[in-house]
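FAQ

Q: What does a record look like?
A: Structure on top, sequence underneath. For example:
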């Protein structure tokens, strides 16, 4: 049947046959994704059309699987840093609870006791622990280092 259609179109000198159709998307009712391509070959006495319908449904599904597999939440360094900060925060809170006073009411001996508890819990093994503790206690980093030395 298609040869008659092309013959009829060729007789009418249709602009439809002037160009090739390459890599277009066709979605079938069955849900299949195909990429049809049609090349036209014309001569004085002939008209040929080469049609290729490439079914890429499975490749598309695999592409979705691969895309989901390649997704990442965040970079590893950030995740480790956040996990460390959360752990450091929980250690700090538990040590603060052991001291039994709010930060605003602490005197130097209370702060030294807190620093000793933090050292015992290895809080200062975490990266950037001193700046974290200094910001929580509203003290300078220098003071925190001094307290660490004094608590030894």
């Amino acid at each position: 049947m298609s040869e008659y259609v092309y013959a009829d179109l060729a007789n009418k000198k249709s602009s439809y046959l002037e160009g090739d159709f390459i890599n277009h998307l066709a979605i079938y009712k069955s849900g299949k994704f195909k990429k049809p391509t049609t090349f036209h070959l014309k001569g004085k006495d002939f008209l040929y059309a080469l049609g290729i319908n490439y079914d890429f449904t499975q490749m598309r599904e695999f592409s979705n699987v691969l895309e989901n597999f390649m997704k990442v939440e965040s970079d590893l360094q950030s995740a480790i840093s956040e996990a460390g900060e959360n752990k450091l925060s929980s250690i700090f809170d538990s040590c603060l609870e052991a001291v039994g006073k709010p930060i605003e009411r602490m005197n130097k001996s209370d702060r030294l006791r807190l620093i000793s508890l933090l050292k015992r819990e290895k809080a200062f093994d975490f990266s950037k622990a001193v700046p974290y503790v200094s910001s929580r206690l509203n003290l300078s980093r220098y003071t925190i280092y001094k307290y660490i030395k004094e608590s030894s």
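Q: Is there anything notable about this one?
A: The beta strands are 26-27, 33-42, 47-55.
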